[in-house]
Amino acid sequence: xxxxxxxxxxxxxxxxxxxxxxxxxxxxxxxxxxxxxxxxxxxxxxxxxxxxxxxxxxxxxxxxxxxxxxxxxxxxxxxxxxxxxxxxxxxxxxxxxxxxxxxxxxxxxxxxxxxxxxxxxxxxxxxxxxxxxxxxxxxxxxxxxxxxxxxxxxxxxxxxxxxxxxxxxxxxxxxxxxxxxxxxxxxxxxxxxxxxxxxxxxxxxxxxxxxxxxxxxxxxxxxxxxxxxxxxxxxxxxxxxxxxxxxxxxxxxxxxxxxxxxxxxxxxxxxxxxxxxxxxxxxxxxxxxxxxxxxxxxxxxxxxxxxxxxxxxxxxxxxxxxxxxxxxxxxxxxxxxxxxxxxxxxxxxxxxxxxxxxxxxxxxxxxxxxxxxxxxxxxxxx
Length: 382
Prior knowledge:
By secondary structure, this protein is of the alpha/beta class. The protein has 14 helices and eleven strands. Strands 1-7-6-5-4-2-3 form a seven-stranded mixed β-sheet, with helices on both faces. Helix 2 packs antiparallel against helix 9, helix 4 packs across helix 8 (about 220-225) and helix 10 (about 260-280) packs parallel to helix 14. The longest helix has 18 residues, at about 260-280.
């Protein structure tokens, strides 16, 4: 059993992938071509968004959104950006890179997502502070493929003039339990803008790096598109000192194939998650919740074990041929690049989760293998 085997993941699609790649190679058009335009249109249609811009990777998608808002005057250096305290560091890097201030929001331990109630508490305390931070943005992460959304809280943020950006790197195709600001439930089109990652390990993965920005905001879309191509709005006319963050034709063609099969991949992951949920009965293990009113896509299936027991359980499972992983062993604010600036006081939910979480294999697992994994976990005595 593998935790993830990309060759195995791509094997059922190999003929389509090879045909798509061959078509691009023969065309002689490798950038700014028909595959990228078609992929952008298909991704936008799937999410119901007006604009999709293919870019180089998920981190660059987030960077381009933040930089775009700054160029449009909607964010300024020193502004606060609320961000999940237990997300991957890529969600935080664009905030600090442009001189913004991360305001870490602890997770809801039931969903493991950014806690909207905690975010509102922070905003209200900030209102009463003698030295308030001007919080102008919230960056929400749909962690592990579970939608992070609360319409009432989001509407309160919008009344305060706060931009809401989705980090949708792990949740393509997921659906929230209620509509977003744009009238749809699908993640990536719940709020003002969203960043997608198509890193090869994602549910919809490229054969290299790739990403996208989605938005319904024409001004932001134009800024992002220009910034991603050296800051140009037309040839040799540079509006901004931009970047080279373009999506190439080969990756766009690969992603068009993957997007066609996304629903099948999602259904398979949901089947495995359902087997784990119904057959793991070890009282020392906390399973991730399945929310019937949501459409979770299970980028990772993350269980929790008592602190101090994770390595023991992982070794036990490894000895029985079950590979596991940890997403993520430390919150971003404890990484060396941030630890001196943002270290919290005392125990936090993000630290507790980081010490207890184990990711079980879900990407290349058959139903029989999932039942075997469940049996081994039930046999384990802490």
